Amino acid sequence: MSISCQESELDFVIKNGSVIDGTGSPAFQADLGIKDGRISEIGDLETRAAARIIDARGLTVAPGFIDLHTHAERKILQLPSVENYIRQGVTTIVGGNCGGSPYPIGDFLQKVEATDIALNLTLLVGHNTVRREVMGRENRYATAEELQEMQGLVEQAMQDGAFGMSTGLKYIPGAYSNTEEVVALSKVVGKYGGFYATHMREEGIGLLDAVEEALNIGRQAGLPVHISHHKAVGKSMWGNSVKTLKMVDEAVGEGMDVTVDQYPYTATSTGLTVLFPAWSLEGGEEKIKERLEDATLRAKIKVGIVQNILYDRGGGDPATIVISSYSTDPALEGKNLAEITEMRGNEPTPENAAETLMDLHYAGGGRGIYHCLVEEDVIRIMKHPLVMHASDGATIEFGKAKPHPRSYGTYPRVLGRYVREQKILSLEESVRKMTSLPAKRLGLKDRGVLKKGMWADIVIFDSGKVIDRATWTEPHQYPEGVLFVLVNGEPVIDNEERTAMYPGRVLRHR
Prior knowledge:
Blueprint: E1 3-4, E2 10-19, E3 28-35, E4 38-43, E5 50-55, E6 60-63, E7 65-67, H1 83-86, E8 90-95, H2 105-113, E9 120-123, E10 125-126, H3 127-135, H4 144-159, E11 164-168, H5 179-191, E12 195-199, H6 207-221, E13 225-227, H7 241-253, E14 258-262, E15 268-271, H8 285-293, H9 295-311, E16 321-325, H10 337-343, H11 350-363, E17 367-370, H12 375-383, E18 387-389, H13 406-421, H14 427-434, H15 436-442, E19 458-461, E20 482-487, E21 490-494, E22 497-498
Parallel strand pairs: 2-5, 2-6, 7-8, 8-9, 10-11, 11-12, 12-13, 13-14, 14-18
Antiparallel strand pairs: 1-5, 2-3, 3-4, 6-19, 15-17, 16-17, 19-20, 20-21, 21-22
Helix pairs in contact: 3-4, 4-5, 5-6, 6-7, 9-11, 10-11, 13-14
């Protein structure tokens, strides 16, 4: 690999690389010319002069990866380099997932546009956010007037550039809504050509009903459906991806537009309150604390937590629940719920672990990693042609807490572990799932594929070496083998080093 400078004609020429264009077609040898942020030529550019030539001999040249499911917008104003993503080869992220988004979206996007960012940002409008704006955290169905007000907020978000609406029906206050509410809001989204992305109501017991609800929302509202971070949670549900993927195929056979995303790990990550029964979370933190102080209500909450430890995110064992972030006592980060229960002088039973969890939350909320999935489901879901790779990660402050390694390693992990080592997917198919498939879902017509006229969002990686390095115990490790990343024709990663460039843009749905 070599780099040389010549008198300018093109801005960049990427020479001698193995080009995977993102469509799923076989790789081919070609040079790429870049001018004014776009791909201007593809072919033999041996005689073309450029301000800079990147020799990609022995390397793979692909479209920049598009991550359809992130929560990276939450800290993008504080950490605009978004380095844990660009070092994976990600050039466009979608925020506002799982029902939670900034609001008003227009104001937030203007703030981002006034900030230099390293990659492209798109947003969904969050159902939970909209419901909270109108109804707070109340555990009831919306009135006709409240629903009309929510529809107005969704419409404004779509006019401001949201690409669709997300739900987090496992989280409050979305968990308190009925299907009819989501359908009514989705109809507004469909009017603007957006799509419905859902963190479904259940991913463990109740998974099949939740998939059916998601598909029915698309049927009734008449818009595309996207199932987020698809998985089968808990031992009793392992293997049910056979049924859920069949349901997706049948819906597509009916003429529906359905896609799915997935992260390549056997553990999930979310707030510790995911183990609490939904009713106990109504009204926010002060109300939760009041319930935990009431002996009768606390006992009732405990029953729900024990059930979730045994049959849902707990994977049947408190040791599978690891505290990833706990600002009240950072010394607990990286320890599992069984260990913490033993530190308190108790046997690590589900019942005692539930007491530990309630006390932890009472003292200050945190996040956990839940080892509750099985590899067979991960692989089965990954192989489905309508499933794209996505991280469900966040913008991470390097070295802080013990986050899920997906925020550092999703894309290199797929390319290294599942493509090169296990040969679950071909390199071309995997790249398609990272590029043109999410671009198509978003309706991005000038990104996601390497062809003339497209924006030059490009990743150059070594397919023989690329691999994730982030682990459960040491998550703050950047991947290997991602050498160059260009965003809108400007390098943000140059020979595995971060540059000073911030060429990212806000992308609005039109």
